[in-house]
Amino acid sequence: xxxRTIAEAKANLSYTEFVSWCRFRRKYGSLHPGxxxxxxxxxxxxxxxxxxxxxxxxxxxxxDFSPHDAAIEEARxxxxxxxxxxxxxxxxxxxxx
Length: 97
Description:
This protein is an all-alpha fold. About 65% of the residues lie in helices and about 0% in strands.
C-alpha cells in the first residue's frame, strides 16, 4: 500500500487513502496474491462441500478451509489510527527522529 517501504508509503499515501485501503482489505481480504488464491479455493471447497451435504446439516464456512484467514480473524482488532501511528513511529525511528 503506497510503496515498498514505510517512508514511500508515508510520502505517497494520505490518511484518507490509508483508511480507504483498510476498508477495502476488511471487505475483500488480503492484497497478497497467494492469500487471494487461498481464499478463492476455500470458498469453492465450501460451496462444493455444502452442495454435497444433506439438508439440515450444519453449513460449512469457507474459513474452515482457510486456516490463514482464520488466524487473522482471531487476531486482535486494531483501529486505523493505531496502525497509522505505528507506521509513523517506525518511519521516524528509522530516520533517527
